[in-house]
Amino acid sequence: MSLAARKIRLIMELRRAGIADTRVLSAVERVPREAFVPPTFQDQAYENRALPIGHGQTLSQPQVVAVMTQALEAGPRSKVLEIGTGSGYQTAVLSRLCRRVYTIERYRELLRAAEQRFAALRLHNITTRAGDGAQGWPAQAPFERVIVTAAAPEVPGELVDQLAPGGILVLPVGRTGRDQDLLCLRRGEAGVIEERLGGVRFVPLIRGAPAETAGNPAVGTSSPEAQPTGRAGPTLA
Ligand code: SAH
Predict the structure, then answer these.
(1) How many domains are contained in the chain?
(2) pLDDT digits (tens, 9 = 90+) for 29-59
(3) Tens digit of pLDDT for each residue in 163-172?
(4) For residue 32, is it within any domain?
(5) For ligand 1, is residue 152 a contact (CB within 6 Å)?
């Protein structure tokens, strides 16, 4: 089966999984996931599964990317903050929907590779930074939307503080290796309203200084994968 046919099959699968926002489906369709996948996993670029990207990190499952993007309700005027650039795939999907994406990654090497992909795909509305995304990006705040693609034990207060009024924050919360909750927080006039979207499993959000290249960045398969855990809520079911 050709990559194009596999992509169509994936879009159908996302529709069946409850992704109804056509702007999200069209953004997924327009971003070549094969450009974000390591050479050895090219044939799996359009499988609905997470894939290793090196440094023990993972490119999230397409369904999780779609669920999080849909929950973010981002539009052409949104200024979005993303924590955990990784391969840059989620960033690229967001860049098709939003005014500008600010993205932070703690591994410089992953960030450099992602920046090269953005340039090759001519995605010019992305601003990148190496650092600890758990602290947000105060100089650029507030953001209409914030998305975190690594799991924190609890919602980082800094990120809620940098959310504009009416803003939405989507993030996995929970401990590594355990079921985590995908949460959607809305900052309204009456305070922050929290909604649980389902169960997921992400790599951990690690606080502190950005990691320098050390040891073997080889692609491995032992890390937790960003995918639903089976006790998903209605959005992931
Ligand atoms: N959205 C990415 C998923 C990458 S996995 C993709 O689609 O490819 C999560 C990423 O979060 C990893 O690359 C990890 O290095 C990064 N990360 C973890 N803690 C972080 C932190 N405090 N600040 C910035 N990035 C972080």
Answers:
(1) 1
(2) 999 999 999 999 999 999 999 999 999 999 9
(3) 999 999 999 9
(4) yes
(5) no
* pLDDT mean across residues, the chain: 90
Tell which atom from ligand 1 comes closest to the C-alpha of 104.
Answer: 24
Structural domain contains residue 222 = no
- By the 10 Å C-beta count (0-12 exposed, 13-18 middle, 19+ buried), 16 is classed as exposed
Query: 62 alpha carbon to ligand 1 midpoint, in Å?
Result: 16
| pLDDT tens column, 182-191 | 999 999 999 9
The CATH number of residue 152's host domain is: 3.40.50.150
Residue owning tokens 């529709």 = 15
Tell whether 182 is covered by a domain.
yes
Residues 89-118 have a mean pLDDT of: 97
pLDDT at residue 23 in the model: 98
Please indicate whether residue 86, judged by its CB atom, sits closer than 6 Å to ligand 1: yes
The response to whether residue 87 sits with its C-beta less than 6 Å from ligand 1 reads: yes
* CA 105 to ligand 1 center in whole angstroms: 6
By most ligand atoms within 8 Å of CB, the mutation choice from 95, 170, 205 for ligand 1 is 205
Residue 234 has pLDDT above 80, yes or no: no
Q: Which residues are catalytic?
A: 60
Residue bearing the CA closest to ligand 1, atom 17: 84
Give the rounded distance of the alpha carbon of 127 from its chain centre.
15
At 232, which amino acid appears?
Answer: A
Say how far apart CA 24 and CA 155 lie, in whole Å. Answer: 25
The range of the structural domain enclosing residue 89 comes to 3-213
Q: What share of the chain is helix, strand, coil (3-state, %, to 5)?
A: 30, 30, 40
Question: What is the average per-residue pLDDT within 185-201?
Answer: 95
